[in-house]
């Protein structure tokens, strides 16, 4: 067993640093941008034709929160090549596995995190808005100067939890042929016929990565809450 661990560990760590962590970081960064835009659009007080845009974003959130991530990966990677549109994509939409994975993880993360950000903004006392208006700020100025900085601190713990979950969810990328940590463990298990050892080993490495991220989350929470007076 120790020989298997010594042989497999470098391959698992390499796969984690080459695919698992980069995919999670890139997808989460893109997902956060999508989440912020989605949350702000859904909170917008504009009327008229803008209601159609709000409805489209609400539908996007509903779709990605109501369907399994694995199914979403299969649709993007295996399904889109069959989406043949004359003049636009006559041969379907064929994506590289890594691109398909990042795209799916980003959209999924954006849907979930948009609700976190939206709830954080709504949790800010209405008096904060009124105080900003009283000194001549517009709604946009109040949002970006007063409300969002407070909402970021409130949303940090759930957003960090979402990122940690995303790191673990990247194991699903093995289903679309991305050679990340879980896929490597499967390949090695098929060679040495020791699936229990390999799957326990890859579980340990996922636990190590997530523990490090949990420590980072705790540090960021302390930094962002340093001016908050404990009650």
From TrEMBL:
Per the UniProt record, the lineage of the source organism begins with: Bacteria, Bacillati, Bacillota, Bacilli, Lactobacillales
- Record's subcellular location: Cell membrane
Topology of this chain in the membrane: Multi-pass membrane protein
The protein's name is Amino acid ABC transporter, permease protein
Annotated keywords = Amino-acid transport, Cell membrane, Membrane, Transmembrane, Transmembrane helix, Transport
Q: Which residues cross the membrane?
A: 19-41, 62-80, 196-216
Cellular component, GO annotation: ATP-binding cassette (ABC) transporter complex
Record keywords: rRNA-binding included? no
InterPro entries per UniProt = AA_ABC_transptr_permease_3TM, ArtM/GltK/GlnP/TcyL/YhdX-like, MetI-like, MetI-like_sf
Which molecular-function annotation in GO is an example for this chain? L-cystine transmembrane transporter activity
Record the organism.
Levilactobacillus zymae
Q: Which family does it belong to?
A: Belongs to the binding-protein-dependent transport system permease family.
| Annotated ranges, domain ABC transmembrane type-1 | 17-214
Q: Which SUPFAM superfamilies match?
A: MetI-like
């Amino acid at each position: 067993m120790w020989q298997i661990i010594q042989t497999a560990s470098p391959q698992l760590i390499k796969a984690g640093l080459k695919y698992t962590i980069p995919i999670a970081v890139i997808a989460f960064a893109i997902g956060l941008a999508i989440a912020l835009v989605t949350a702000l659009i859904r909170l917008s007080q504009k009327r008229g034709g803008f209601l159609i845009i709000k409805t489209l974003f609400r539908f996007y959130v509903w779709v990605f929160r109501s369907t399994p991530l694995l199914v979403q990966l299969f649709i993007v990677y295996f399904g889109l090549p069959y989406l043949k549109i004359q003049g636009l994509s006559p041969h379907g939409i064929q994506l590289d596995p890594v691109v398909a994975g990042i795209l799916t993880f980003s959209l999924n993360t954006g849907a979930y995190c948009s609700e976190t950000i939206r709830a954080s903004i709504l949790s800010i006392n209405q008096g904060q808005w009124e105080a900003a208006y009283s000194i001549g700020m517009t709604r946009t100025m109040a949002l970006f100067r007063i409300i969002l900085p407070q909402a970021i601190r409130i949303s940090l713990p759930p957003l960090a939890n979402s990122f940690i979950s995303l790191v673990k969810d990247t194991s699903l990328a093995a289903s679309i042929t991305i050679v990340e940590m879980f896929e490597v463990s499967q390949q090695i298990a098929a060679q040495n016929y020791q699936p229990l050892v390999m799957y326990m080993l890859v579980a340990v490495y996922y636990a190590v990565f997530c523990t490090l991220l949990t420590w980072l989350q705790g540090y960021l929470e302390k930094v962002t809450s340093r001016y908050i007076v404990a009650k």
